[in-house]
Amino acid sequence: MTAHLIDGKAFAAGLGDRIAAGASDFAARTGRAPGLAVVLVGTDPASEIYVRSKGRMARKLGMESFEHRLPADTTQEELLALVAGLNADAAVDGILVQLPLPSPLDSRAVIEAIDPGKDVDGLHPLSAGHLVAGLPGLVSCTPLGCLMLLRETLGSLAGLDAIVIGRSILVGKPMAQLLLAENCTVTMAHSRSRDLPEKVARADIVVAAVGQAEMIRGEWIKPGATVIDVGTSRVLRDGRTLLVGDVDFAAAAERARAITPVPGGVGPMTIMSLMHNTLVAACRRRGLPVPDLDG
Ligand SMILES: NC(=O)C1=CN([C@@H]2O[C@H](COP(=O)(O)OP(=O)(O)OC[C@H]3O[C@@H](n4cnc5c(N)ncnc54)[C@H](OP(=O)(O)O)[C@@H]3O)[C@@H](O)[C@H]2O)C=CC1
Ligand SMILES: Nc1nc(=O)c2c([nH]1)NC[C@@H]1CN(c3ccc(C(=O)N[C@@H](CCC(=O)O)C(=O)O)cc3)C=[N+]21
């Protein structure tokens, strides 16, 4: 292996210290801690783990965590009523509804019901619109975390050729917008793209957010490129479950200049970006200056 390993876990820990200081300052000024509400409908085991780690991290950084666990047969009306209550609750600065929701719940309607000022997941159409328009707003946690890692690794991204593989509202689309705002030349690839290997081979920055275990082959990577692997898939190998990314890590690390591991790369940054967004939302809601969280 020749590539530099981008240590998301360590970077997230450093950012966490700055967020904790900001949260404590917020509490001193307002008499209460920033509050994050996480809503989980149903009992998807992976979602349970994420929700638990989000609550634990919020408390660790001196924020208040409100966890709402609803049964899988919750109705749309019940869920919308909960969101309305959280919108009205002054102690709640951020609202995250864990996705995917069990069918037949309509996640779009639920997301649109969230107060955009509390949309710490950056999923509301108004948040997405602000990002495209270059206006201040809340940016989806995973792309925000990826951007922090890229800036830390590369400094200025201006002029670089970037490819984002995957175009979801949660990851791919906001990622491409952030890279464009950093003056990258951005290609967006998806399941209908032709000749993906040739497009990946031209990129200085590769962000893979597909959800297909190790589909990005090492030999596609341009020598010296920086690779950010968002994907997380559980695979059975040698009788053990293993968490792997969208990128064939071992082969890609032979060619890349820097690469994120899975686990320990993007995942910890997603959770820390959520904490970042909660503090930012809390400060904006109270008209307080947003602390400078860049290292
Ligand atoms: N580590 C972290 O913090 C996080 C990890 N994830 C992980 O990232 C992955 C992606 O998540 P998410 O964006 O929500 O997933 P989605 O399923 O919503 O989107 C997947 C995207 O990949 C595209 N795609 C699917 N197959 C191919 C293919 N063969 N070639 C090119 N593109 C393809 C799809 O294209 P099309 O639009 O044409 O269907 C779609 O745009 C998942 O593994 C998820 O678990 C997600 C969030 C956070
Ligand atoms: N409304 C909403 N917002 C989300 O941000 C959201 C969501 N729904 N639904 C599911 C995806 C997935 N996601 C992850 C978060 C952390 C890790 C993470 O911390 N992963 C660890 C490993 C954890 C493990 O071992 O399972 C790591 O990569 O090191 C992974 C994935 C957020 N998502």
Automatic annotation (TrEMBL):
Keyword Oxidoreductase among UniProt keywords: yes
Record-level GO cellular component terms: cytosol
Gene3D superfamilies tied to this protein: Leucine Dehydrogenase, chain A, domain 1, NAD(P)-binding Rossmann-like Domain
Keyword Signal among record annotations: no
Annotated ranges, domain Tetrahydrofolate dehydrogenase/cyclohydrolase catalytic: 6-121
One GO term of the biological process aspect: purine nucleotide biosynthetic process
Family matches, as Pfam families: THF_DHG_CYH, THF_DHG_CYH_C
Domain of life: Bacteria
Residue ranges occupied by any Tetrahydrofolate dehydrogenase/cyclohydrolase NAD(P)-binding domain in the UniProt entry: 140-284
InterPro entries: Aminoacid_DH-like_N_sf (IPR046346), NAD(P)-bd_dom_sf (IPR036291), THF_DH/CycHdrlase (IPR000672), THF_DH/CycHdrlase_cat_dom (IPR020630), THF_DH/CycHdrlase_CS (IPR020867), THF_DH/CycHdrlase_NAD-bd_dom (IPR020631)
GO molecular function, one term: methylenetetrahydrofolate dehydrogenase (NADP+) activity
UniProt keywords, alphabetically: Amino-acid biosynthesis, Histidine biosynthesis, Hydrolase, Methionine biosynthesis, Multifunctional enzyme, NADP, One-carbon metabolism, Oxidoreductase, Plasmid, Purine biosynthesis
PROSITE patterns: THF_DHG_CYH_1, THF_DHG_CYH_2
Protein EC: 1.5.1.5, 3.5.4.9
Record: residues binding NADP(+): 166-168, 232
Reaction(s) this enzyme catalyzes, per UniProt: (6R)-5,10-methenyltetrahydrofolate + H2O = (6R)-10-formyltetrahydrofolate + H(+); (6R)-5,10-methylene-5,6,7,8-tetrahydrofolate + NADP(+) = (6R)-5,10-methenyltetrahydrofolate + NADPH
Pathway noted in the entry: One-carbon metabolism; tetrahydrofolate interconversion
Function: Catalyzes the oxidation of 5,10-methylenetetrahydrofolate to 5,10-methenyltetrahydrofolate and then the hydrolysis of 5,10-methenyltetrahydrofolate to 10-formyltetrahydrofolate.
Family: Belongs to the tetrahydrofolate dehydrogenase/cyclohydrolase family.
Quaternary structure, from the entry: Homodimer.
NCBIfam families associated with the record: PRK14186.1 (NF010783), PRK14188.1 (NF010785)
Listed HAMAP family: THF_DHG_CYH
Protein name, per record: Bifunctional protein FolD
Organism per entry: Celeribacter indicus
Gene field: folD
